[in-house]
Amino acid sequence: MQVKSVGVYGLVFGLALGGFAVADPVDDVLVIDEELQITTRTNSVEGHPLPEVISGWHYRSDETRALEADSFDNPGMLGVEDGESIWHKVEGTKGNSCASCHNDAAVSMKGVGARYPKWDEKSQRPINIEGQINACRVENMDAEPYPFDKGGQKPLTAYIKHQSLGMPVEIDLSEGDMQQWWDDGKETYYKRTGQLNLSCAGCHEQNNGKNIRADHLSQGNVNGFPTYRLKQNKLISLHNRFRGCIRDTRAEFPPAFSDVLMGLEVYTTWRSTGLSVETPAVRQ
């Protein structure tokens, strides 16, 4: 009976993707604190399947968009403030904090969040901000690495990425084997999985702009992570969202920072090229 129930749901879900009316992204401009204009629409890079890349901000309600436009109202900024405290917190046996090596994050971290993931020679694989934080904790602080989504991992990641607010996303695929990871991520993006037989592309490329249940499907660009999701009332990391989407296809999701999800992060970050870093974005 359970399998039959899921099958019926999958049929309804599939019909919804094909049959719901298009609701175009709103025509609006994001200016944070009436000072910093954010690039939320831009021409895509060569080889991109869509002619224009559009931030998920354009697909949200008036009220949600307004939250992101005001740093005082943006609930994700509480996480950024927590991250600032962690930046200065001494941990580990070496008596270091992040600030011990990197000083003022507004200077040393400016642009960092726009360029990750990048190639890591030591591990011979891409490394994201979370991975770099853990590498620094182990090597430079002699502190324990953060478990996925625990401790200060999300707020510290949000704080570091927030220093690049407004800067365009641009990763370097010429480093190491980044191109191969891009290829693998692309394969994952288009692969149908789970009992609902859905892919990332099925929602975010072929049906973006359509309403499915109470949600307005965006292009799935990742320039705002960690993102504050109102329905969960907290910051959500990128790999958490990947796993949530895969779970929603009724498939078994891979571990965070696994090869599958790191490839997907490389590919989806490339798809977001040219959009401004919005961290912490606000979504429903």
Describe the structure.
With 284 residues, the chain is of the alpha+beta class. The chain has two domains: 2-73 and 169-283, Cytochrome c-like domain (Cytochrome Bc1 Complex, Chain D, domain 2); 77-162, Orthogonal Bundle (Cytochrome Bc1 Complex, Chain D, domain 2). It has twelve helices and eleven strands. The strands form five sheets. It has a three-stranded mixed sheet. A hairpin with a 4-residue loop joins strand 9 and strand 10. The longest helix is centred in the N-terminal third of the chain and has 18 residues, at 2-19.
Q: How would you sum up the major sheet? A: 3 strands, mixed
Helical amount: 40-55%
Q: Tell me, rounded to a whole number, the average pLDDT.
A: 92
Question: Structural class of the helix and strand makeup?
Answer: alpha+beta
Find the CATH topology of the largest domain.
Cytochrome Bc1 Complex, Chain D, domain 2
> Treating each run of at least 4 consecutive H or I residues as one helix, how many helices?
12
Q: What is the CATH class designation of the largest domain?
A: Mainly Alpha
Query: Could you spell the SSE succession in H and E letters?
Result: HEEEEHHHHHEEHHHHEEEEHHE
**Estimated share of beta-strand residues:** 5-15%
* Uncertain runs: 1-18
Strand arrangement across the biggest beta sheet? 10-9-11
- Taking Cα atoms only, what radius of gyration do you get, to the nearest Å? 19 Å
Q: Mind telling me the CATH superfamily name of the largest domain?
A: Cytochrome c-like domain
Count of structural domains: 2
Total E-strand runs: 11
CATH architecture of the largest domain: Orthogonal Bundle
Distance between the termini: 33 Å
Shape: globular
